[in-house]
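ESCALATION

Customer reports they have been waiting on this structure for their group meeting. Please prioritize. Original submission:
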Amino acid sequence: MTETTPVYSGAAHYFRTLPEQWSHRLRSLHAMGLDTVETYLAWNVHEPVEGDWRRLDDIERYLDAAAEEGLRVIVRPGPYICAEWDNGGLPSWLTARAGRFVRTAHPVFLEPVRRYLDAVVPRFAGHPALSMVQVENEYGSFGTDAEYLAALADGLRERGVTVPLVTSDGPTDIMLTGGTVPGIRATVNFGSNPASAFAALAMHRPDDEPFCMEFWNGWFDHWGAPRVTRDVGSATAALSGILDAGASVNLYMAHGGTNFGTGAGANHHLLDGVDAFLPTVTSYDYDAPLDERGAPTEKFVAFRELFARARPAAELPPLPTLPPLMPEQRVALTRTAEVVFEDLGSSPVPASFEELGVDHGLVAYRLSIPGPRAPEPLEVRDVRDRAHVYVDGELHGIVDRGGDGMLPPVGAPAEVTVIVESMGRANYGPRLGQHKGLGGVFHGIQQLNRIHHSAHRLPGDPPALDSAAWSATAGSQALPRYYAGTAELAEQSDGYLEVPGGKGYVWVNGFCLGRYWNRGPQRRLYVPWPITRPGTNEIVVLELDGLDEHAVTLHSAPDLGPSGA
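Update from on-call: job pushed to the front of the queue and completed.
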């Protein structure tokens, strides 16, 4: 394969920013010295419910915006994308149905994939800015179904993709033998030691020009763990090695953005021999050259110098102006509203979120302990992902996924309600598509049957502030619960919102910023300027654990937590 000029690309996902911000981010990438932008397509953004297609125009609009800035575009349509995105981009309705056949050529998975390609490929295939398209994503880290990969490659061609196709995998024998496709260019993903990575690629593909499709210049964060950062010197040295080799590169990430709503995924790792569930935080800042609001960092300056040397003839535009930052202010939460649950019927044993048709949110499992009987321990098994357990209306305990579900004894008769919250679905590895919900509730050795289900779907829409659902805040009230207040702003502006303690979700003017949690490391959620307005701005908090005070604070600076590096 002959490549006349290396590709200098950066990842910036259209679904992690708002359309009004795209031109700013793309101009900033161009100003860093890049000639290309890379984006995944997230299937679950476009078809969250089977047959309910949404936001397909965003794909074309993003390519149009890149073309206006003079950038080419690499599209990575998946269908699986990883990306630290919920379920690796696959819709939960699909993985629930496909089960262990996910990411294989089995018809139960491949037929919906073909319908997905029918919907999205025409949105980018003929676009003049399109430069290449990736087949699946890091498949060599998952499986060896060559028939599946060939079907995807053929499907892209049959639907009008004429630009080069590529694969991307880690630089190991296992990954490169499992994830590549004959006749399609292979690329590699890594964060350091470019010479070693490109040597591994050359051993398997001696005719393919070196291309790092994901240069990991930063990293992502998990709730309850220290923030992960990468120093400028280390990242710059590795990037310099890539450019000195004459290779193409895609910065992952050039701009990370935000896992708005319930978009954040999760990972599983072995920690001290225990299989740990690690949900990803709302911010996808990634310690990237452009921070979460699009401001240049030290890494941006260092990378720009490297690209300027690599492209001496290129005329780089100046950085675009950033929007203003909102002033610091405390916002009292003066109103409260109950959470309304939708009745979903009953079954002998707990149904999963997927069986109930719930993508994300809260599912209440209600059951009775017959009596009279002596007190026995109450046990909640296989919580996915966090449960508040109430006995006769009083909080009896909170159980985290993987934690001890054995709770203090309960006498009977008694009424038990277990409210389960879903966090992100695994975006990487063999647990892709794992169900949310509850395994069972036991009183002593006895499993309790006949479960009544109700759900509050998230991110959803909180009650309108002018509705009768709201009342003045009082003292102790049952959780989960909505709280609301208003903030006055002189102009549209970027900011950061902090909730005092607890765990839950935040909306600003009806837009769900995402999850907050006092476990950290992230302490403040990014508020993008397009959702704000001059004058009165509505802030709604859904609190699950209990607030330290009925107020939130708006800030002009982020707080992503202390670094563990």
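Sent to customer with the following note: The chain has a mean pLDDT of 96.
Escalation resolved.
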